[in-house]
Amino acid sequence: MKIKIYKHNIVYIFTAITLFFAVKTNLYSQTLEIVINPNKNFQKIKGFGASDAWRCQFVGLNWPDEKKEKMAELLFSQELDDEGNPKGIGLSFWRFYIGAGTAEQGKNSDIKNEWRRAESFVDADGNYDWSRQKGQQWFLEKAKSYGVENFLAFSISAPVHWTLNGKGYNSDLKSGRINLRKDKFDDYASFMVQFLKYFDDQGISFDYLSPINEPQWEWEKKTQEGTPATNKNVLEIAKLVSNHIEKNDLSTQIVITEAADLRFLYSNHGRSSRGNQIDYFFNDNVNIKNLDRTITGHSYFTTWPVENLIAVRQNLNKKLNKYPNLDYWQSEFCILEKNDDVKGGPKRDLGIATALYVARVMHADLTLANASSWQWWTAITNANYKDGLIYLDTGNKDDMYNLNSLKFDGNFHESKLLWAFGNYSKFIRPGMVRVETSSNNKLSLKEQYQNVMHSTYLNPTTSELTTVIINYSDEDEKINFKNLDINKMYVTSSDKNLEKVSINKSDDLVIKAKSVNTIIGYLKK
């Protein structure tokens, strides 16, 4: 009798396991059917970008022309090669870092790594030298020549001769107040606007100015320029900058607040005088003529675990919905946070893992928080760190990141991250609008973020539709667009760099495992 029960149990267990995997297979392996609704619109896209911070100063100044020209092409080109593959990722935003003068201080700046110092256009006597930051100016001019649509200048510290401690960092001042002498607030505002005026006269108009960066951190470490600032400090400087913009008859708009963590935008998050920034800056009592109706924040420390990635952006969106016509930009990101997927920032990764991780963050910001712009931290890096799109090294395995030799020459490497970023930046251009998509996907949002994610953008002029699909999973996925006539497809994967691939229109699309894909077409007639 016991033997019979045992046999029946085996049958029951086998049947249960079979049913479990049948259900699981049905959930995860069915053809994903996507329907696009171009009549339901979300945010208008402003652009995708990166900054010149730190590394462009030496690459643009000293590196051989052939190498830096190729890097510029990779970042800015919108052209295709003879096989129809993109030559570059076509950035539509370029961020210029206005230095604070720690480079002139040299070792006295206390910042040991000279790559993290920066020159200043103004000296202690108020004299301007526009030949400073020449390497960055080289990339700025290249961005202009390639047709980059948006230029933003940002400052992270006032010039050192105006700070409270005479340094570009905040030393031991931990009150949260800005590292800037009170009698120099207006000088600082005037300096930034003189910067705008000079380049406007040279034919490069900066669309935006960001006067304060990550004000929630104390910036007491001797590693880079930076200053804290209270909301009151930021508001006062924004007003002064606006006044100087008016006096100089410029069209530049001020964007704030480059929050160090998205949670500072909608909550205090432990910094009462530096948090709740949407409420503080965009309530009805604030009236600054040249303040753009945009709030900017950084996605650092809000991307892991996946539940947190989702929840933070949902909370941000709830707050944004209370302020009609207020745009949100994700204005700075690289890998800092420890996580299971790519471990964290240390050790560069030219492969697909980091590219997928960042693509997922982009997807979350674009679809959950309705970001109208998404900007990467630094375009070029010389560090063994996941913070660049293009990576530099010496080529010498025993001394890969020699800071002195890399000032003048070295090797540069494309990354999968560069090209996955291009799946968005190359094809989703300024003025396009995100539209609604629906599917037969029954997975939870968390499960989707570990499998297949998709979003679609409409060109209102041509009616062309661009869909980006991220397959985070280890398995190929079949996709069927119910109402899209597909013309082109570009893939970034372990063996492809934003490569144009052939399409069999009679079959379902196969989205390869661990890939980022851009699909372009028109609604079926």
Automatic annotation (TrEMBL):
The keyword Hydrolase applies. The keyword rRNA processing does not apply. GO terms for biological process: xylan catabolic process. InterPro entries: 6GAL-like, 6GAL/EXGAL, GH, Glyco_hydro_b. Pfam families: Glyco_hydr_30_2 (PF14587). Residues 32-391 form the Endo-beta-1,6-galactanase-like domain. Keywords: Carbohydrate metabolism, Glycosidase, Hydrolase, Polysaccharide degradation, Xylan degradation. GO terms for molecular function: hydrolase activity, hydrolyzing O-glycosyl compounds. PANTHER family: ENDO-BETA-1,6-GALACTANASE, ENDO-BETA-1,6-GALACTANASE-LIKE DOMAIN-CONTAINING PROTEIN. This is Endo-1,4-beta-xylanase. It comes from Polaribacter aestuariivivens.
